Amino acid sequence: MASSADSSPTRWGPKEQRSLYLRWFYLADDDGDGRLTGRDALKFFAMSNLSRDDLKQVWAIADSKRQGYLGFSEFMTAMQLVSLAQAGQEISQDTLAHADLGSLQPPTMEGLDKKLKKKSSGNKSGSDIVAYHPIESPMSANWFNSKSGKKIALKSVTSIIDGLKKSYIEKLRPLEKTYQYNDFVSPLLTSSDFDAKPMVMLLGQYSTGKTTFIKHLLKTSYPGAHIGPEPTTDRFVVITSGPDERCIPGNTIAVQADMPYSGLSSFGTAFLSKFECSQMPHPLLDHISFVDTPGVLSGEKQRTQRSYDFTGVTSWFAAKCDLILLLFDPHKLDISDEFKRVIMSLRGHDDKIRIVLNKADQVDAQQLMRVYGALLWSLGKVLNTPEVMRVYIGSFNDKPIRETAAGPLGMELFEREQEDLMSDLNDIPKKACDRRINEFVKRARSAKVHAHIISHLKKEMPALMGKAKAQLKLLETLDEQFAKVQKEMHLPAGDFPSVDEYRETLSAYNFDRFERLRPKMVQGVDDMLAYDIPGLLKQFRNPYQ
C-alpha cells in the first residue's frame, strides 16, 4: 500500500507538489509524449480506489476543454480532486476553487510506490525523470510537411485535434487542392490553425471602447495600445501571450510557422503593414488571444478608401475566432455603410456574435431604455435573423460606474451584465475543442459543395467550339447552375456560397481547366463526416462513460 505520506517529501509546498506529480505523470505517460490518454488514465487512476462515478467526475473537470487527454497541469488538477474525494469532499469545480491547494496532501495510490521503484530501477539513477519535461509539442505538426493524402499511423493520434489533423491531411486537403478551394474560399489549413488558442475579436466604430475593453479584461495595458477620443487604433492587433512584452510586425508574424496567421499573406503588404502582434506574459492570454481592430469608418470618413480589403480581413478573422464582440456606445448607434458591409461579412458566424452596448453609464435609465430599443431596431435592419442577438449592457472600463446617471437599479444591472459577459468569455477555452470540430465539419461541407460546383461547370463546357461564349453564359446563369447542382446532388441550400462573390472569383478562371468530379475523393469526405469524426469523438470521450 502506497500512502500519500510514503510518496511525499517531509516539506510540502508547490515546488514539492510539482516534483512529486511529475514523477507520477512520468510513470502514467507510457509513450512520454506529455499526454495522458483515457487508456493510460484507466490504469493509473484505478490505484486511487475511487468509484467509477467519482473518477468520471474527476476526468470531466480535469479535461474541461474536452481535448481527450490530460496534460501535466490537468493531471495535477485530477490528482488534487482525487485527494479531496478521498478526504470525503464533493468532487466539483467549486470544491477545487475553495480548497487550500498549497497544503493539500497527495492522494493515496495503492501499489504506486512499488511501480515507481520498478520504473526507477529500469533507469540509470533516475536521470530520465530529471530530464523529462511533459511539454505538449505535438508531433502532428510534422504531418503537414508530408505529401497530401499520405496515411498517418493510428497510434500517432493521441487527441481529438490530432484526429482532425489526420482526417484533414488524408481526406479533406486532397479535395481542397484538386478543386482550388484555397483560391475561392479559404487558404489551406496548417498545423498551427488546429493548435491555436481561442480568439476573441472586437469590432465597432472608433471610440466605442474596444482597446479599453481589452485593457479592462487584462487589468493592464498591452504593448502598442493607444486610447483616445479620436481614431487611435489604426491597425489590426493580435494580443497574445509571450515570454516578454514586445510588438511583432505583420510581415514577420505572417511567416511564423507556429502562428495561425499565414493565411493573411494573401491580403498583401498593404494589409500586413497595418497588422501587428502584441505579446506579453499574462495568465488570461495563456488561454485566449484578442484581436483589436481599427474603428469602422462612418460619415465623411467613409469617402477615404482603405489600402486593403478591410471587409475581407474581418471575414478571415471571423472564421478563425471563437467569439465576435460588436461594440456600440449610446452616442454611436448609427450603422454606417462600411459597418453594414462588415456585419454582412460575418454571415455564417451568427452563433459567435455578441453585442456590447458600452459606456451605458453616460446616459440615465430613461435614455438607456430608448437607446437599447434604437440599437435593436438598427441591428434588425442589418442582421437578417428572426432571433434577437444577445446584448450586454455596461461600462467596461477601469473607472467606477457613474451612479448619478445609472441609479441603484442601473448599478445592479451593469454588475450582472458584466458577470454574464465574463462567464461567456470564461467558457471559451472549455468550448474551444467543440468549436474546432464544428468549424472543421462546416469547412468539409463547404469544400464538398465547392467540388460539386467546380466539376459541374467543367462538365457544362463544350468539348471543342464556343468555349468562351459557354463560359460567359454559365457566369450569367450561375444562380441557376447552383440550383441545378443542389437538385442533382441533393445538397442543402444552406451550404452553398454567395452567388455574387463566386461569380466575381470565377470570372478570372478558365472553366475548361477545372477538374472533373472524382467520386472516390468526395466519398472519402462523406465517410469522414459520417464515420471518422463520430468515431474520433467516441475514442476520446470521458474514459469512465
Task: Report on this structure.
Helix 15 (310-320) packs parallel to helix 16. By secondary structure, the protein is of the alpha/beta class. The protein is built from 23 helices and ten strands. The strands form two sheets. Strands 5-6-4-7-3-8-9-10 form an eight-stranded mixed beta sheet, with helices on both faces. The protein has a two-stranded antiparallel ribbon with strand order 1-2.
- Please report which band the strand proportion falls in: under 5%, 5-15%, 15-25%, 25-35%, 35-45% or over 45%: 5-15%
| Helix-and-strand structural type | alpha/beta
Main sheet makeup: 8 strands, mixed
Provide a count of the helices. 23
Task: State the separation between the terminal residues, measured CA to CA.
Answer: 28 Å
Biggest sheet strand line-up: 5-6-4-7-3-8-9-10
Mean pLDDT: 82
Give the overall shape, derived from the CA principal axes: globular
Rg over alpha carbons: 27 Å
Number of strands: 10
Q: Give the helix proportion (percent range).
A: 40-55%
What are the low-pLDDT stretches, counting only 5+ consecutive residues below 50?
A: 1-10, 124-135
Main features:
disordered N terminus, alpha/beta, 23 helices, 8-stranded mixed sheet, two-stranded antiparallel sheet, 545 residues
Short description:
The chain is an alpha/beta fold and 545 residues long. Helices cover 49% and strands 8% of the residues. It has 23 helices and ten strands.
